[in-house]
């Protein structure tokens, strides 16, 4: 009898209540000036109505219980309003704003919280802007696309902002007063992850050369995952022994286990797209901010194709046209060898995505930390991203780019280098120009000096009488000090393809 009574009760409880997707909760920011999809679950066949901003839209849950309504484009509003969902039960969301929503994604430098940034105490104390909201997507991975995620919207305040994405928050803090509308940030990040994890299976099937991604993952499963499991077990044992005080008198008797090096992907391809991006589709957003690439150092030459395919794929999945997509080019970091080239190549690969429309790259070659993969000056990184958004989206007449290489032609025993975005002139900050090299036909590069001639450089060295190629900041951790008159740094470049 108990089972007979219990099972119908469970069925009613499981399927009767209307629920909203987690992105729709108190304090949510809805995207202005676009159709706004709102979705959730209910009992199959149940009629659901959503009321917001004097509009009511209805829908019927499908056989799987999923329902979707689309609100008409909304005007921006910083006045918290109520959104009501009605069916067999009723759900009310409070303090709903309408403004611009930015998806902030990537690995640890986008995940990096405000509490760890430069001047963190001062930044946190001054974070009193209720028109900035933040949704942190809980870490999750899946072998197949899923439809739900975990997280809540938080209002910016000194008690909450410490855990916000620093790049996202400082970006929002810059643009919000200028555009005078609320700004929502969806923080979808996971440190130490590769771009393959953030790409859908469709994107990874879009080009034959991407078959290598699956091959790399199979290799890592065979070579690295068993080592990682053994390390995790050894570390847990070491930590337990340390907590028990076994090393108090002689810690050297048992050193902390060393983590195995990972020279390839450490998570399954598509696993983070499936569990952290797919559940956000088709939430209406203004654009995407991206900071990732450090964990793809092991094969930098393939990054450009993957990155371009990912941008196209995300735009297709969200179904909102050419969504603005802005990213941070990797800063200076020695990665074991300051004069190595892996990060230089990866920066070049990142820049290839600028061929896509509605894209922008914030150059950070001058504000990294050669000894720390997590530089703390996230304020300037965010300001440069904000300049791109202000210039491309918000109608501001501002310089948003530093000098970008156009051409290099030989003039006698020198190379004359021309740039875009150098109309305000070129300048060397603090000291003579650094990190320039030229080479002759033998392809041997030598350090070179440069003279600024208005918006061009004349580069030469006595060691190369007939130069044919020039490079600037073409190392993992160069000393980069070339700027335009707007104070924005030149992007690293090379004129050769050797």
The main β sheet shows up as: 11 strands, mixed
pLDDT averaged residue by residue = 94
**Number of separate strands:** 24
Range of strand content:
25-35%
Rg value: 26 Å
Counting DSSP H or I runs of 4 or more residues, the number of helices is: 11
User: Low-confidence parts, pLDDT < 50 over ≥5 residues?
Assistant: 1-15
Task: Name the structural class.
Answer: alpha+beta
Helix fraction? 10-25%
Molecular shape? globular
Distance between the termini: 79 Å
How does this model look, in words?
There is one protein chain. The longest helix is centred in the middle third of the chain and has 19 residues, at 225-243. The chain has helices at 2-16, 108-111, 120-125, 166-179, 201-204, 211-223, 225-243, 271-277, 303-318, 342-351, 378-392; strands spanning 19-20, 29-31, 36-41, 47-52, 55-60, 66-71, 77-86, 90-106, 132-136, 153-155, 183-189, 287-291, 325-328, 359-362, 404-411, 414-420, 426-428, 436-439, 445-447, 449-453, 456-460, 469-472, 482-484, 493-494. It is built from eleven helices and 24 strands. Helix 9 runs parallel beside helix 10 (342-351). It has 498 residues and is of the alpha+beta class. The termini are far apart. The strands form five sheets. Strands 2, 4, 5, 7, 8, 9, 10, 11, 12, 13 and 14 form an eleven-stranded mixed β-sheet that branches. A four-stranded antiparallel β-sheet has the order 15-16-21-20, with no helix packed on it. Strands 19-18-22-24 form a four-stranded antiparallel β-sheet, with no helix packed on it.
């Amino acid at each position: 009898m108990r089972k007979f009574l219990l099972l119908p009760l469970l069925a009613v409880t499981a399927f009767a209540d209307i629920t909203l997707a987690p992105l729709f909760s108190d304090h949510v920011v809805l995207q202005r000036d676009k159709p706004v999809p709102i979705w959730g679950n209910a009992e199959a066949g149940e009629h659901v109505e959503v009321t917001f901003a004097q509009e009511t839209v209805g829908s019927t849950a499908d056989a799987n219980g999923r329902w979707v309504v689309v609100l008409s484009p909304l005007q921006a509003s910083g006045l918290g309003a109520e959104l009501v969902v009605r069916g067999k039960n009723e759900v009310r969301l409070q303090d709903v704003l309408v403004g611009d929503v930015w998806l902030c994604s990537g690995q640890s430098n986008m995940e990096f919280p405000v509490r760890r940034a430069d001047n963190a105490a001062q930044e946190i104390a001054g974070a009193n802007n209720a028109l900035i909201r933040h949704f942190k997507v809980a870490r999750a991975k899946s072998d197949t696309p899923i439809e739900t995620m975990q997280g809540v919207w938080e209002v910016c305040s000194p008690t909450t902002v410490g855990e916000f994405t620093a790049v996202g928050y400082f970006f929002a803090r810059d643009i919000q007063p200028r555009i005078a509308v609320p700004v929502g940030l969806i923080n979808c990040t996971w440190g130490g992850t590769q771009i393959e994890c953030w790409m859908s299976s469709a994107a990874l099937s879009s080009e034959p050369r991407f078959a290598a991604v699956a091959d790399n993952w199979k290799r890592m499963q065979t070579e690295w995952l068993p080592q990682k499991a053994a390390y995790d077990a050894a570390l847990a044992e070491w930590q337990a022994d340390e907590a028990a005080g076994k090393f108090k008198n002689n810690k050297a008797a048992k050193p902390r286990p060393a983590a195995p090096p990972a020279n390839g992907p450490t998570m399954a391809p598509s696993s983070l797209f499936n569990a952290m991006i797919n559940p956000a589709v088709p939430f209406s957003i203004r654009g995407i901010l991206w900071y990732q690439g450090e964990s793809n150092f092991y094969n930098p030459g393939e990054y450009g194709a993957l990155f371009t395919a990912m941008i196209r794929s995300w735009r297709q999945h969200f179904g909102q046209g050419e969504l603005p997509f802005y990213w941070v080019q990797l800063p200076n970091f020695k990665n074991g060898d300051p004069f190595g080239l892996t990060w230089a190549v990866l920066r070049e690969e990142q820049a290839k995505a600028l061929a896509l429309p509605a894209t922008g790259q914030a150059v950070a070659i001058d504000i990294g930390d050669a000894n720390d993969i997590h530089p703390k000056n996230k304020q300037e990184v965010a300001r440069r991203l904000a300049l791109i958004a202000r210039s491309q989206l918000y109608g501001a007449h501002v310089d948003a780019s530093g000098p970008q290489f156009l051409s290099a032609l030989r003039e006698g025993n020198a190379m004359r280098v021309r740039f875009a975005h150098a109309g305000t002139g070129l300048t060397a900050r603090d000291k003579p120009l650094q990190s320039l090299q030229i080479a002759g036909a033998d392809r041997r590069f030598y350090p070179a000096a440069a003279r600024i001639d208005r918006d061009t450089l004349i580069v030469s060295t006595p060691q190369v009488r007939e130069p044919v190629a020039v490079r600037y900041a073409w190392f993992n951790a160069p000393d980069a000090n070339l700027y335009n008159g707007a104070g924005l740094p030149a992007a690293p470049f090379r004129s050769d393809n050797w």
